[in-house]
């Protein structure tokens, strides 16, 4: 079939890609990707773009809806790009995500993990952090919202279903303040404008709230009034921070900050421990989901009181510290200095004296620890989306722990890394998915690797380029 832009074609949606695109096939097998469809839908699709072996389309008309469908409860679903699954009921979302993990392990890691479980804690209002870019609305008012998918157009936020409802109170107060003083939203194309982002973080257990305003300048006009404005919300605001970011580009946080009210951080309670978290530090966005995830990691780690535990990519130390009392010694490694500062304080505040934290690249620091003959019984890795570095594998190969627990927010790189762990002698014992980010296109995977068979000295080809080149698509 000679498919062209603006053609309308009838499609059965048979699958969903890991980016959440529905997959339909024309009679000759030509693939058409249609966003916001569900497997089982029969639709008329409006062709948007034709490539050599596939095309993109949008829904023209739903002829017969899939039984997976439900009503979306968000006004800006499909516009803001934050959620992928508001049109699919949650049980089916879980099934789809679980299959993403299974399929990625099969396709990328060449590993059959069989059927796995998927856990979930909560589905709505679970996010404890929001970062809203500023822009103008059609009436010329400064608004905070979300960037539309693949663009820098701001969609004003209207009661996001993923966030606590009171986030919009802080957002509106900040918008009113900015508009009253005619503060200009930042435009990355021109580099002009003061107000870049509004950042809100909430400690789900403690109830504490931190508000940060990211500005393209050194000063916020009427700073004191801004503090009073935010405090007038009568919410449990413990910290207001101005963060200066004068750099062009997508990076949200700049490196200079000034606390204009309260503490420099907020405190939250996770797994029974108290954590201080600066705006710069990574902190799991779903508190209850994180407790579920950490409980699984702890179960998989099978710790005993004589064990030495190493927590690589440790952030503010939350995972390792939640297990510190079950082991004789804990080492944590993380690249962000503020997070390591937080981790050290977090150990002290919780009366934990068997933990040591190092700031640096996980691979390099682990190699250094390995060269000092530190030999952990268990290593936990929780890398960012791109997965573990080659040096991490080399260090683990050298340290030869009995068990490795891999936590990953990207099942594609988790699958690749699981294969590499197999190459250095580990076997996959258990795998589980945890839906930390319901309604979005993300899912967390936890893998237990153990029974190391190969001698730690066997040199296996683990060059970085090969690692980076195989990182695959994100889930
Ligand atoms: N385990 C933590 C954080 C996991 S997110 C938790 O559960 O809260 C991944 C962490 O890896 C982030 O804190 C990020 O700053 C850190 N990171 C990214 N690249 C790194 C690197 N090369 N070396 C060490 N840490 C790194």
List its traits.
475 residues; alpha/beta; eight-stranded mixed beta sheet; seven-stranded mixed beta sheet; 10 helices; disordered C terminus; binds S-adenosyl-L-homocysteine
Task: Describe the protein's architecture and organization.
- The protein is globular and about 65 Å long.
- It contains ten helices and 22 strands.
- β10 (195-202) and β11 form a beta hairpin.
- Residues 469-475 have low confidence and may be disordered.
- An eight-stranded mixed β-sheet has the order 6-21-22-20-19-16-17-18, sandwiched between helices. A seven-stranded mixed β-sheet has the order 9-8-7-10-11-12-13. Strands 1-2-3-5-4 form a five-stranded mixed β-barrel.
- The protein is α/β, with parallel strands linked by helices.
- Helices cover 24% and strands 30% of the residues.
- The protein starts with 7 loop residues before the first strand and ends in a 6-residue tail after the last helix.
- Bound molecules: S-adenosyl-L-homocysteine.
- The site of S-adenosyl-L-homocysteine has 16 residues, from α5 and β17.
Ligands in the model, by name, code or SMILES, are: S-adenosyl-L-homocysteine
So what's the overall shape? globular
Number of strands: 22
What order do the strands of the largest sheet run in, or round the barrel if closed? 6-21-22-20-19-16-17-18
Terminal CA distance: 31 Å
Class from secondary-structure proportions: alpha/beta
Task: Produce a short descriptive summary.
Helix content is 24%, strand content 30%. The chain contains ten helices and 22 strands.
Topology, element by element:
Layout: E1 8-16, E2 21-25, E3 31-35, E4 42-50, E5 54-64, H1 90-107, E6 118-120, E7 129-136, E8 142-147, E9 154-156, H2 167-180, E10 195-202, E11 209-215, H3 223-231, E12 237-244, E13 256-262, E14 266-270, E15 273-277, H4 287-301, E16 308-312, H5 318-321, E17 329-334, H6 337-349, E18 355-359, H7 362-371, E19 378-381, H8 390-399, E20 403-408, H9 411-423, E21 427-435, E22 444-450, H10 464-469
Parallel strand pairs: 3-5, 6-21, 11-12, 16-17, 16-19, 17-18, 19-20
Antiparallel strand pairs: 1-2, 1-4, 2-3, 4-5, 7-8, 7-10, 8-9, 10-11, 12-13, 14-15, 20-22, 21-22
Helix pairs in contact: 1-9, 2-3, 7-8
Bound molecules: S-adenosyl-L-homocysteine.
S-adenosyl-L-homocysteine is lined by residues 282, 284, 313-315, 318-319, 333-336, 339, 361-362, 382, 384.
